[in-house]
Amino acid sequence: MSQQTRGGAAGKEPGSKYDLTKIGARVDRVNVSGLLRTHNDYVMRAAEGLFKANNFQQLMLEAMSAKSYLHELGIFKDVSVHIDISRGPDASPQGYEVTLKGKELSRVIGSAGTEVGQNEGSLRTELTIPNILGRGESISLQGSYSSTRANDLQLKFWKPFFHTRFRENRPELSFSIFRNTDRFDISSFQTINMGYLIDFSAHTQLGVDLTHSLQYENSIRDLGLLNKSVPFAIRDHCGPKLASLVRYSVVYDNRDGTVFPTRGLLLKSINEYCGLGGNVAYTSSTAHAEVNVPLFAGFVAQFCGRVGVVRETKQTTTLPINNLFYCGGPLTLRGFKYGGAGPVIDGTAIGAQTFWCTGAHLWAPLPFAGVFKGLANNFRMHFFYNVGNSNSWTTDNMRSAFGMGLALKLAERARIELNYCVPVRRQLTDKVLNGFQFGIGYEFV
Amino acid sequence: MQTSQYLNQLHTADKLAEEPWPEDATLYQPYEAEQILLPENASCLAVKAYLKMCNLPFSVRSCANAEHMSPGGRMTKLPFIRAGAFIFAEFEPIVNFVEQKDMAIGSWQDEDEKADMRTYVSLVENIFTMAEMYVSFKNERVYKEVTAPRNGVVFPWPLNLMQNYSKRRNALRLLKVYQWHDLEIDDVIEKVAKCCETLEYKLKESPETPFFYGDQPCELDAIAFGHLFSILTTNLPNMALAQTVQQFKHLVEFCRFIDEKYFQRSN
């Protein structure tokens, strides 16, 4: 990656006065200043690349990467780089001295704002105490309250290991205590989860760049009903249960953008095994894939698919209802109400044990996009066709819908869609939405 | 939303009167051998006795989370009954539900007698439920040796500790609401003895019949039996309640009679 840029930079400026690659350079000293609470060894590796530079261009590039590395360590608010020729008796000819001046984060950082979740918006406040022990360890307390009246409270401690020799793998360990309330309005129940979570995440670069995360969760899941006339199939699940599970997720992403990518592939898989003690037992796997193919004139073809399976294990007595899947809604099967394309008991939707769902999109820039310049970059039009089903792997009784709509990008992370949907195939019990549908989220099918 | 709720209620009331007693009526309660606590047992037994007196068929289903499945109630939330599309919890709502069906016992009583009987029913329910709760949660030995292990038996550790804690907190809160929290055990015994005395006096009013009112059973017979029989037959480290009830020979005799008439014969 960096090799390419270097070559490109050198080749790009044949007309410039100096070819920086021809100016020899050697780094004599690297200073990192501004370390008040941070231990020296935590920033040691920032200098590594700098000492390898042997011409001035490399020196500049390495200095920039050292700067971004220091940012990633999560201890500095701001880092500036100063390059000076080295002086003194030990100075070599062509010797340079690099000073990275950092300004450490304050003791306590508070923030408040809005966040976009899957099909919900939420208000969030966070209080962070960064770098407590001097090596990037931090504690944060965050709370959020969403438009669907779900709320979440979390106390998290995390420690990055970016300063070790596994720097490239970006290992990070975290421990959090959480309490969150989820409402499943469509099935008239809510869950209160309370427990702790240990998470270890790392990257691997064996051929392909993968992001792994291994979690252990131990929580109490208390299921309560939201109204009086709830079918017994749901009422049976009431009461608290103790869940103890491991979760492994892996992500591969080489797209060129997260919201409106033009090329690239995203693969994501989450696997859960629950039943290490406690009285909840199941295995659950979900996979999500997205392929983007650039066409002509800014048009992009996109194919998405998602599959989910919940299975019993040997210890399972009943599958927990709150781990089942809901198919339908603006994020999965457009043209259906949220959870409206799944099994129903006594008129109330109940999650499915398996589901699959695919989507084909044709993304197009807005017409006359050139007139609006930057603003138009945040909008796209799309035509879509969604196909999916619950509790069945065949295409016999599947659900499908097509339509078109307008999508808006929110801060490189989330997408807002307004679509006109026409459901094509449905089942009797499905709740369809023929007309305009609004969707907000970060992972669509 | 609001209007639809009222409509629902209206609709429910209509349906209640129309539909006959469903064949698959089910009574939900905690596991009798391992889990159920004294106040819950009394309440479940009272409801069962009532349904048997009405000669209505029902099946009993024991499940560990019966209390959490219950739509809620004033005291123990248990038992609850599922009859067709309807769910009712605790003695009084279930009795009211059955009375709408014209199959209820006690339809021979006149208004005055009914009002009189209702007073006794609520007296019995309040005094005995509170006394049972007091003994189960406020007596340290009973709580440690019986209540806590039984209540927590269906949950894995450490969930059982948390459930015990919240159950006890709720029970103590209820005791406080009824102003029983600062009573001594002697005061509780006195209240129970007084209640028993009233009941025995009532029973003696019609010495020639085995029931409280005349020669047919009514709600009062069901609830008095439920509580008295549970208190008499439950083994606790502190038997003060049982000893109190045992002093009233007529009541003990009444329990034996109901038990034989409605429970022994069917088994």
From TrEMBL, chain A:
UniProt GO BP: mitochondrial respiratory chain complex assembly; protein insertion into mitochondrial outer membrane
A Pfam family of this chain: Omp85
Q: Please provide, in alphabetical order, the Gene Ontology terms of the cellular component aspect for this entry.
A: mitochondrial outer membrane
Localization in the cell = Mitochondrion outer membrane
Superkingdom of origin organism: Eukaryota
Instruction: Note whether Membrane occurs among the keywords.
Output: yes
Domain Bacterial surface antigen (D15), residue spans: 131-444
Could you tell me which Gene3D superfamilies the record lists for this protein? membrane protein fhac: a member of the omp85/tpsb transporter family
Name the UniProt key words of this record, in alphabetical order. Membrane, Mitochondrion, Mitochondrion outer membrane, Transmembrane, Transmembrane beta strand
Q: How does it sit in the membrane?
A: Multi-pass membrane protein
- Mitochondrion: present as a keyword of the record? yes
- Family affiliation: Belongs to the SAM50/omp85 family.
PANTHER family associated with the record: SORTING AND ASSEMBLY MACHINERY COMPONENT 50 HOMOLOG (PTHR12815:SF18), SORTING AND ASSEMBLY MACHINERY SAMM50 PROTEIN FAMILY MEMBER (PTHR12815)
What this protein is called in its record is SAM50-like protein CG7639
Source organism (scientific name)? Drosophila lebanonensis (Fruit fly)
From TrEMBL, chain B:
- Its predominant location is mitochondrion
> Could you tell me the keywords of this UniProt record?
Membrane, Mitochondrion, Mitochondrion outer membrane, Protein transport, Transport
Annotated Mitochondrial outer membrane transport complex Sam37/metaxin N-terminal domain ranges read 44-168
Q: Which SUPFAM superfamilies match?
A: GST C-terminal domain-like
Compartments annotated for it: namely: Mitochondrion outer membrane
Keyword Cell inner membrane listed: no
Residues annotated as domain Metaxin glutathione S-transferase: 193-256
Which InterPro entries does UniProt cross-reference here?
Glutathione-S-Trfase_C_sf, Metaxin_GST, Mito_Protein_Transport_Metaxin, Sam37/metaxin_N
Query: What do the Gene Ontology cellular component annotations say?
Result: SAM complex
Q: Name one GO biological process term.
A: mitochondrion organization
Q: Which family does it belong to?
A: Belongs to the metaxin family.
Q: What is this protein called?
A: Metaxin-2
Q: Organism, per UniProt?
A: Drosophila lebanonensis
Gene it is expressed from: LOC115623164
